[in-house]
Amino acid sequence: MKKNVNIAVVGLGQIGNYLLNELNTKKKDIELKTGKKIKIIAISAKNPKKKRKFKINKNIFYKNPVDIIKKTNVDILFEAIGYSDGVSKKVVELSLKKKIHVITPNKALIAKHGDYLAKLAEKNKVNLEFEASVAGGIPILRTIKEGLATNKITKVYGILNGTCNYILSEMETSKNTFSNVLKKAQLLGYAEPGNPKLDLNGYDAFAKVRILSSLSFNKKISNKKCLMEGIENIDYKDIDIANQLNFRIKLLGITELINNKLFERVHPCLVKKDSYIGNVNGVMNAVIVHGYPIGESILQGEGAGPGATSSALMSDFLSILRGNIKYPFGLPNIKRKIPLVYNVDQYSNSLYLRFEVKDKPGVLSQITKQLAKRKISVERLIQIPDHKRKTASIVIITHKANEYNAQKCIKSIRSNKNILKNPILIRLL
Ligand SMILES: NC(=O)c1ccc[n+]([C@@H]2O[C@H](COP(=O)([O-])OP(=O)(O)OC[C@H]3O[C@@H](n4cnc5c(N)ncnc54)[C@H](OP(=O)(O)O)[C@@H]3O)[C@@H](O)[C@H]2O)c1
What we know:
The chain is an alpha/beta fold. It has 14 helices and 18 strands. It is elongated. It has 3 domains: 126 residues, 3-Layer(aba) Sandwich (Rossmann fold), CATH 3.40.50; 171 residues, Dihydrodipicolinate Reductase, domain 2 (2-Layer Sandwich), CATH 3.30.360; 84 residues, Alpha-Beta Plaits (2-Layer Sandwich), CATH 3.30.70. The structure holds NADP nicotinamide-adenine-dinucleotide phosphate. NADP nicotinamide-adenine-dinucleotide phosphate binds next to helix 1.
């Protein structure tokens, strides 16, 4: 890498704008640590007239980011627009083809096109870095790629979406409903005001799981979805009951190899209140890695927000300036095989089940009979009657139950006229 390095920042939203300010204010520190003089020669956003939090230099503003690649001699480009396709993909693709290093926090782009883009980067001998795409400020990708480079990783799981973790924690502490807490999260800027769906339905965490799997197991990014459930249907009632049973509900992203097959999932989990993960609250993220010989390794920190995300982007940046040109996924693309995918129907796990029923004799035995028929055995059972309404909540913690059997069983119990609502199923960690 030459001494004077030209930089472009594409996308000046929450992340790009903050990053630009970091780059401007930390030039001396960067030179001290890398010996490189950096110059921001181009910036781009959709609306040139928009008022931004930090001052921008209009003389280097490009309305179309593609022009930056065509018309300037940029060395390193930050992509912070955020689409999985469209202009984000185009800018990254063209940059790599023109031997420009790329740094991005865009998990949607990497989860969808990471293999192709990594191949391009490798071919053109430039970097494609995406530390900020998973768990914000937590340096989990570099930890897996470098710190744990020779470990055999078997499982990675954690809290990968700060919005969901905030909502679940706040529902517990304020004893409030999902929709009220979501409104509060939107007011505080923890959830997107317009469309928070991709955070709440597990999609965002799933993109991060895919990136984690790929790095942990040295495989191509899987395009198959094993299991994805969000938190939209979590009721305060379940948080309360879980609490009484010494559990908390957390949205977890989990990836593991079972018999050499990849099992990726995102869903709410009951975790023990005295476990590490059970005490990661609010907008915090945490990632737990199981590997050999390292054992269990845990990283926790802020998973989103401009500060934490920029910290990860800057770490990628300094890595490139120091000449750490590596394979984006830690090994040559050709050595990364397409993973075999685990059949979720074969999965067995303990379950939390809640049935809202008419409070009359025989209903409980109708439920337990159906469970027994599907070889699902009960570990704990609680009945909470509501005498006024003549209803009851039946809560069951099962021993390990097969996923396919459990789904079939729930379906058949639902058709019983004494069952008043769709049964709730939450897996235990
Ligand atoms: N926000 C976080 O906490 C966070 C955390 C981790 C990762 N990330 C990732 O960081 C990326 C950026 O997120 P963000 O929160 O900063 O998004 P954002 O606030 O919505 O900013 C997006 C930026 O892209 C610009 N843009 C949109 N279309 C464009 C186009 N056709 N050409 C040029 N610029 C265009 C927008 O321009 P205007 O400003 O003119 O509208 C805006 O500046 C995403 O990939 C996101 O997943 C975000």
